[in-house]
Amino acid sequence: MIKLLVDNWSEFISGFGWTVLSSIVALFFSLIIGSLFAILEVMPSKVARVIGNVYVEIFRNIPLLVITMFFYLVIPLYVVKINGFTAGTIGLTIYTSAFIAETVRSGINSVDVGQMEASRAQGMTFWQAMRYIVLPQAFKLVIPPLGNQFINLVKNSSVLAFVAGFDLMYQGNAIASTSFQTVNTYIIVGLFYLVITLPISYYMQHLERKLA
Amino acid sequence: MQNWIDAYSWINIRFLLQGLEITILISVISVVLSFIFGSVLGIIRYAKIPYFSRIVGFIIDVVRNLPLLLIIFFTYFGLPAFGFKPDTIPAAILAMTFFESMMIAEIIRSGILAVDIGQMEAARAQGMKLGQAMWHVILPQAYKKMIPALVSQFISLIKDTSLATIIVVPELMQHGQVVYGQNPNYIIPVFVIMAVMYFIVCYALSLLSKYIDRRMA
Question: Which of A48, A202, B28, B72 gives B95 a disulfide partner, CB atoms 3.0 to 4.6 angstroms apart?
Fold first, then answer.
């Protein structure tokens, strides 16, 4: 197994790098998009709430693979040529943003409503109150669930393998099919995933205990 | 427009529905099995049996933090190296059950932890054995608390069956690929109808979970 790892070190590391890159890019954009839709869901305007709700419910209830394959096949056909990595990361971002919206919304809802009322009474606009008073408190509450979303995101990034996204899973399959050491290759791939996910998972458990 | 009408011919729709049937079949079998295994594993982890619970807990943490896709690959391409070669549908069920058991074990454990400790103490004080107290007092309360988490895990499971398309399990996603493989003009219509099918199943479940949750509260 060590020989397999050494022989294919550069492929494993490049796959690991693409997986990490895709996860971080998707996390960054899905945090922004997710927070926006979370705010829409708690806005006073009914139209905004409906838009937020529809977005979240649609993308939470459709498989990630369907979303990713759609972008992979449709955008190059009608809009612009993109590679598997980009299509996969777009799919991941949209899918994850729906879950983040749900998480952030529950955070916003658990901030006492008096905070918003008091800020509005001070003459702040809705957006100012959101930005300076409510969101900072909400994010503190949702750090552990957001960490779990990030773990899911890293695991879900394996769908890039479907669209030739050069990620860890994709490289693992390539190595497995050339070396014929299927079992060992998949164990190494698993260890690479665990290097990212397991520490975050234990840290989030620790945080949850500390906050509880 | 003609593309949409052609893509939605009865033959294609029926083919997709057959895929949906396999998707649901795999999901239901896997969820039932993993509920049973997950309960056992969750209770073992909760029970804090020296060493044993720790080892089980570590395995649960490891598997939960791996991508399901990797486990599917391992089951289908890795297990034959050990002289066991499952067919595609059994391989998918095996992989799903293995992964979901660990996810459900964690839900069960936190459900049990959420039951007030006084319940266990009171049951034990009445002369019940640990197993009796668990079965008659703790678990019924714990399962009630877990319903939303269990249903949302079931929804993820249904969505995740689409990953089994990589080992050519004839489920909805795979049948969709067959249909739009005939003609690139079918891609958008097929994705729309596939998304609608997944959405109806998953959204109905999430509404049901909300309804049960309200009734019980």
Answer: B72
